[in-house]
Amino acid sequence: MSKITIDTDTSRATPKPKPGKRMTAPAIMARKQDGKVDEPLVMLTAYTMRMAQLLDAHCDMLLVGDSLGQVIYGLDSTIPVSLEMMCAHGAAVVRGSWHAMIIVDMPFGSYEASPQQAFESASRIMKETGCAAVKLEGGEAMAETVRFLTSRGIPVMGHVGLTPQAVNMLGGYRARGRDDAEEDKILADARAVAQAGAFAIVVEGVMEEIASAVAKASPVPVIGIGASKDCDGQVLVTEDMLGLFERTPRFVKVYHDLADQISGAVATYADEVRGRRFPTAAQTYRRKG
Ligand code: KIV
Q1: Which whole number is the average pLDDT over 258-279?
Q2: Residue of minimum CA distance from atom 4 in ligand 1
Q3: Can you tell me which atom of ligand 1 is nearest the CA of 236?
Q4: Maximum distance among all alpha carbons in the chain?
Q5: What percent of the chain has pLDDT over 90?
Q6: Which residue is closest in CA terms to ligand 1's atom 1?
Q7: Fewer beta carbons below 10 Å: N end or C end of the chain?
Q8: What's the gap in Å between 44 CA and the centre of ligand 1?
Q9: Whole-angstrom distance, CA of residue 213 vs CA of residue 253
Q10: What is the whole-number distance in angstroms between the Cα of residue 177 and the centre of ligand 1?
Q11: Residue 279 lies in a domain
Q12: Is residue 68 in contact with ligand 1, taking CB distance under 6 Å?
């Protein structure tokens, strides 16, 4: 874990994190030797500067996930998320971090048409945010694109299994790999993406045995979400694990009830404002003398 502490002396909006050495794609890949990692990789989502500051020292990777569509923008799915949204949030997360590798999701419609379209979108994301890699969903169908990007200097994280951008094809967000055909497909997808040059692969929402098999077979780290403890690392949506939502998927462990704490603090504030007990002298400017 990083020992760096943040210096927010200057301003809340422009903190000056002391420079540190960021994690890189080769450093993440090097964590898996002879088919296993000594210590699992830690990844969480981040969409804002402040959350990035709070998570950075604890995480190897921060993912600016297109789940921000639901978590930040209240959308029904990740389908409407735009490149502009990903660039704005990606840049904020890069500004708030100095240790973790920052990976930004490529939104639906920004990469599927052709490798060239993917390069245009990925290079824009990297120029506008300063992130170190992009993530895209899909397996065999995206292998050519992954090869195109990685051979042109863009590190790519793959994403197989339950791929939320394909919700309309999948018919929902149910865990994948319930029959042999689905299992074979997930294994083939992970293999194709790894062979195409991905530096790591997210495997989401699959039966545990399949996730274990993917992690065992993959030469690059496999990061699980709703997958298996045998994966080479884990990722969760931060707002889910902090308890900001009433409903979370079964695979989420809620580590804290932040929603309750926020509600309590805001109720106290509202009560004090209405009762004229806030602000007090301590929060009020007065002329000296
Ligand atoms: O968008 C996202 O947050 C993700 C993770 C759930 C892996 O892709």
Answers
A1: 98
A2: 65
A3: 6
A4: 81
A5: 92
A6: 65
A7: C
A8: 9
A9: 23
A10: 19
A11: no
A12: no
- 235 pocket-lining for ligand 1 (C-beta < 6 Å): yes
Question: Would you say the CB of residue 65 lies under 6 angstroms from ligand 1?
Answer: yes
Question: Which residue lies with its CA nearest to atom 5 of ligand 1?
Answer: 65
Q: Please state the domain count of the chain.
A: 1
- The closest-lying atom of ligand 1 relative to the alpha carbon of residue 71 is 3
Q: Cβ(135)–Cβ(110) under 8 Å?
A: no
pLDDT of the residue at 276: 98
- CATH code of 32's domain: 3.20.20.60
pTM for the whole structure: 0.94
* Full domain range(s) for residue 143: 25-256
In a domain? residue 203? yes
Q: Is the CB of 105 under 6 A from ligand 1?
A: yes
Asked if residue 160 belongs to a domain, the reply is yes
| Structural domain contains residue 285 | no
Dihedral, CA of residue 129, residue 233, residue 56 and residue 80, to nearest 10: 40
Residue 41 has pLDDT above 70, yes or no: yes
Which pLDDT does position 11 carry in this prediction? 57
Axis crossing angle, helix 208-217 with helix 180-195, rounded to the nearest 10:
30
According to the model, what pLDDT value does residue 8 have? 54
Query: pLDDT per residue over 9-34, tens digit each?
Result: 555 656 666 667 899 999 999 999 99
pLDDT in tens, 142-172: 999 999 999 999 999 999 999 999 999 999 9
Which residues are the active-site residues? 204
- Cβ of 237 below 6 Å from ligand 1: yes
- What does the chain come to in residues? 289
- pLDDT (tens digit per residue) in 208-222: 999 999 999 999 999
Cβ pair 231, 213 in contact under 8 A:
no
